[in-house]
Amino acid sequence: MAASLIVAIGPQNAYLLKYGLARHRFVFAIAAIYIVIDVFLITLGAVGFGTLIAQHPLLKLCFAVLAGTFFFAFGIVSIRKALKPGKIEPPQVSGAAACSTAIFLSLANPGVLFDTIVLIGGFAGQYANIYDRVAFSAGAALASFSWFVALSCLAFFAGGYINDRAWKFVDLAIGVLLIVLATSIMRDALTTAREIGWI
To answer: Deepest in the core among 121, 129, 136, 167, taking most CB within 10 A?
Structure first.
């Protein structure tokens, strides 16, 4: 379950993929940041925050709407960049700027918070035994570690073969996937709104 949520393309994965394809050496630092933050948020959800939010549909609805809006906006930006005429330049920023953006995309991203705290943490919180919660959370953390390490290594290797047309395709594909994901999240938000009697 954790792998299916983490592997889904979102701003985090898109950002890591871009820096990997650009063959920036600090792409692995970005992956490490994602892993550490995921472990922290999963643990936060497992100790009770996930269950608390899951039991209050209004909080869940707020997270879903924010996540859907965030993904939709990010997707539109990515598509506009892909369709813009001219050559796409690989990202050129300092390591500190790239890492601070990675932290922002994790902690200020409602989608990440929703997946880790509400969904994964909420499932972990259903176990009464603390050892079962730890085991569940450890499995989710392992999925995060495996995915981000694999994605950063694969993107870095593939970066030697990327050209401008491929860059445009990557931006377009990421944009479309994010909009599809945003639509799915908004559909779930609509269901939650009906459950609490708002619609």
So the answer is: 121
State the DSSP code for 39. H
> Integer distance in angstroms from the first to the last C-alpha of the chain?
30
Residues 6+ apart with CB under 8 A from 3: 143, 146, 147
Residue 67, CA atoms < 13 Å, CB-side half-sphere: 28
Enter the pTM of the model: 0.75
> Cα angle at 44 between 186 and 182, to 5 degrees?
15
Sort residue 86 into left (φ over 0), alpha (ψ -120 to 50) or beta.
left
Least Cα distance to 143 among 161, 162, 170, 119 occurs for: 119
Distances (CA, A) of 32 to 13, 24, 63, 104: 13, 14, 25, 14
3-class state of residue 115 by DSSP: helix
Q: What is the largest CA-CA distance in the chain?
A: 57
CA pseudo-torsion sign 37, 43, 46, 49: negative
Tell me the pLDDT tens digit for each residue of 80-134. Answer: 888 887 665 656 667 788 888 899 888 877 778 778 887 787 788 778 888 888 8
DSSP string, 160-198: GG--HHHHHHHHHHHHHHHHHHHHHHHHHHHHHHHHTT-
Residue closest to 156 by CA, chosen among 90, 71, 80 = 90
